[in-house]
Write a structure and sequence with these properties.
8 strands; 304 residues; 2 domains; alpha/beta; six-stranded mixed sheet; single chain; Rossmann fold
């Protein structure tokens, strides 16, 4: 996915929100904001945004650059409160659903629903409560279009993946991973080898190895080796890249990983599960803002 002008204002607004919530000294706030703005200007000049030319940098690169600047100022891990809330929400839903009899399409929808555990989109901070999440889940299960897509996707999974095949699951947010666990467990119960990918360092409320310490099921973990926003294939460890090449199917959660991977020619089929949380992504996937979408991408074809 390519940058649009809105991405630049979004990253500045989101950074400002982070700094305000952390009560950072005003002078340091200004220094950080100016540094990020200058970095954005450099991207503009080097990638042809001037004169309305196409920019080939994806939006997640802005977030990654912002993260590096925050890390230099000892502000790399600013979402622990949100992680704690997400963990409580995810644990609650895991306990509710873990013993319920559900088919694969229902577990796909629940995993997708987990991508709604996001507190800060476009600089607009949102409180997420159990009651809000329950209402949203009821709405998803009444969405006939989504149910149809989930059923078709479940059938594709059953056709594509056999016992002993590898499915690589790219996790996104803390709390969401507990809802993913229901889908992962269903695949494991079918004799499929499932391995999960987490971030190599703190970034937003994304899952890291330390966030998986009390994960409810046993699964092989890989990490990206960095704290990038999304996943850039040219920046991950060779061992992880090998697993991506060896996988029969990729399950990819969240907008940032969509931004970095949807334009790639992937070596195997991929399923994107995400809530559409900003206008540029909504336009890119031809969807309404706020919708939850499931997209199956066939091997050797990029989505965008």
């Amino acid at each position: 996915m390519q940058l649009v002008e809105e991405c630049y204002s979004c990253i500045l607004k989101r950074t400002n929100g982070i700094l305000l919530r952390k009560n950072i000294d005003l002078k340091l706030q200004n220094q950080i904001m100016n540094k990020i703005a200058k970095t954005n200007e450099s991207l503009n000049a080097s990638n042809g945004w001037l004169n309305n030319k196409i920019n080939r940098i994806c939006p997640a690169q802005l977030g990654t650059n912002r993260q590096k600047i925050l890390e230099l100022n000892n502000l790399g891990n600013t979402y622990q409160k949100e992680k704690n809330i997400g963990h409580e929400l995810g644990s609650y839903f895991w306990k509710v659903f873990k013993n319920k009899k559900m088919n694969l399409e229902e577990k796909l929808i629940i995993s997708l629903f987990g991508n709604g555990i996001e507190f800060d989109v476009g600089g607009n901070y949102t409180e997420i409560t159990q009651d809000k999440m329950i209402k949203e889940l009821h709405t998803l299960f009444q969405d006939t279009k989504l149910q149809k897509t989930a059923k078709e996707t479940a059938l594709k999974i059953s056709t594509k993946v056999n016992q002993g095949d590898l499915v690589l699951f790219l996790l996104d947010n803390v709390g969401e991973n507990y809802l993913d666990a229901l889908l992962i467990q269903a695949l494991l119960d079918s004799g499929i080898d499932v391995e999960a990918v987490v971030k190599g360092g703190p970034i937003l409320n994304d899952v890291t190895r330390s966030d998986m310490q009390d994960f409810p099921i046993d699964v092989q973990l890989w990490d990206t080796g960095n704290s990038d926003v999304g996943l850039f294939l040219n920046r991950i460890p060779e061992q992880l890249l090998n697993r991506i090449n060896e996988a029969k199917l990729l399950i990819i959660k969240g907008m940032a990983q969509f931004e970095t991977l949807s334009s790639e020619i992937l070596p195997t089929d991929a399923i994107y599960l995400m809530k559409v949380k900003c206008n540029p992504v909504a336009e890119a996937v031809n969807s309404e803002l706020g919708r939850y979408i499931i997209h199956y991408q066939t091997k050797d074809y990029s989505w965008l």
